[in-house]
UniProtKB/TrEMBL annotation, chain A:
GO molecular function: ATP binding; ATP hydrolysis activity
Protein name in UniProt: Zinc transport system ATP-binding protein
Top-level taxon: Bacteria
Residues in ABC transporter domain copies: 6-240
Disordered, as annotated region: 228-267
TrEMBL record, chain B:
UniProt record similarity statement: Belongs to the ABC-3 integral membrane protein family.
Main location: membrane
Region (Disordered): 311-340
Protein name: Zinc transport system permease protein
Amino acid sequence: MTDPAIRLSGATIGYGDVAIVRDADLTVRRGEAVAVLGSNGSGKTTLSRGLLGLATVLGGTVEVLGAPVGRLRERGRVGYVPQRHTVSGAMPATVREVVGVGRLPRLGLFGRPGARDRAAVAEAVDAVGLADRLADPVAALSGGQQRRVLVARALAAEPELLVMDEPTAGVDAASQAALATVLARVAAAGTTLLVVTHETGPLAGVLTRAVVVDSGRLTYDGPLAGAGAAGPDCHHPDEAAQPPVRGYRLDQPRPAPDAVRLRDGSR
Amino acid sequence: MELLEYGFMQRALVASLMVGLVAPAVGVFLVQRRLSLLGDGLGHVALTGVGVGVLTSSAPVGTALVAAVLGAVLIELVRARGRTSGDVALAVLFYGGIAGGVVLLSLAPRGQATNLDAYLFGAITTTTAADVAVFAVISVVVLAVVGLLGRRLYAVSDDEEYARAVGLPVLPLNVVLAALVASTVVLSMRVVGLLLISALMILPSAVAQLVGRSFRSTLYLACGVGVVVSVAGTAGSYYTGTPSGGTIVLLAIALFLVVTAGVALRDATARRRHGRQVEVHAAHPHEHGEGCGHRPVPHGDHVDYDHDGHLHAPHRTGTGTHYDEHSEHAVVPPVGRDRP
């Protein structure tokens, strides 16, 4: 268990032969809770997809739980919450069925879920506060609840590393708070968290370290508190002095919500 | 019954029973994967296999099976490479398969029975005892694989990206599913014909998804619907003298329309009842919120408010906020489907 959870060294990640994230160095120790911050198109999602084998490693090394990515011997050690707002596929499915999928990687090729697996599914659903909805069709749940079902699916695998892509985007405040509680518990249990997000506000109590991605490069790596002020826009210090431009700009600054509040002086 | 006295009708009914059971069991995964037309593409490829079979005087069912499975594996590999979209790959299969079949069948020597219509539109009454045996083997194999790998096929069909991220063998599972589709295509070839092949995979699933709650119950329901329309359509075609394939498909579509209308009606009544509930509190302009004086009760993704001995669950409608009643003190029992 001494291997770091994530180790990137000179890693270049992209799709096909187009590099999106270039020359990234990052080591995440077991049990850390890391936010990956950056504006839209900065490459933060590509970085996380590279860790999951969904984007191609074009150069350098990307190791997850001590093994090169894509060659994980033990399946089910990595949990993933994709950037999707809803679960519902074309066919109806209950919460239990969707979350049950999370256990499959642990069952080998033909294994059937046993009592232990059913208990893990029930625990995961309980952890996200949907225990009373276990037998309900997912389509009957609200958007925020469906996101929590996806979190439960990842938790059901009892992962050592949990990668989440924008878990709080488009989720109401109550669901965000519920999610933060769940993640705090998961992190306390020793699971390594990597959360891709552009708003750290709701999860500020859980995430301790932040990595900022800007135009495919890691530009900040340090405590989360420093990343709000030293966010993606800190590289253009003169920008704040310029008169605000109306309408949409290609380089639209997207400061973290914290930074906005600090500037307003409302906190 | 009169129609059971004929051997050809007995075989036809047994064949339609197997097709009705197997086709939806595979079809639900295609619908889930939003790849409903894959069956059609493979049906066209199977025609090339039939052509090869007729030309080489071997059993067309066998060569069709080989051609369809090869086509299925090919299309999955093309999709996995990601160079050509699944859409274009399907189109190439469609045209190549049917063109190959037509050309090969036209090359068949004179005097050989090359009844193109029988393959395109189905000719269930020509099913031989040997065909029934082959169909039974295919049915058992397909159902066994679905039983064994169903959960994994569901996982891959539902969210391929997630399945890949957590390390499920996505490509092999997709190839297995495609091979299952190919086998089902060959199985249904005689009953509904290659042109209507997807109908028996997709329509029962479409009916079942309207009323199913879980994936498992939807799967069973689809198989049930498949068996009913398949057997009823075959029996009906005996009395009306119409082709079995078209009769089965029209029956399935009729069932789909009836169930759609029924579900729409049920939802409309549920909404009206829900609307009447609002009137309980029409004379009640108070909007709940933090510090409104009523005890907040967190409930799932929203907060209820304890109000005069019952819980108010605020939810937004087109006309503003209104309050559902829930809890055991509810004045009006809650409407199941509309619970926010």
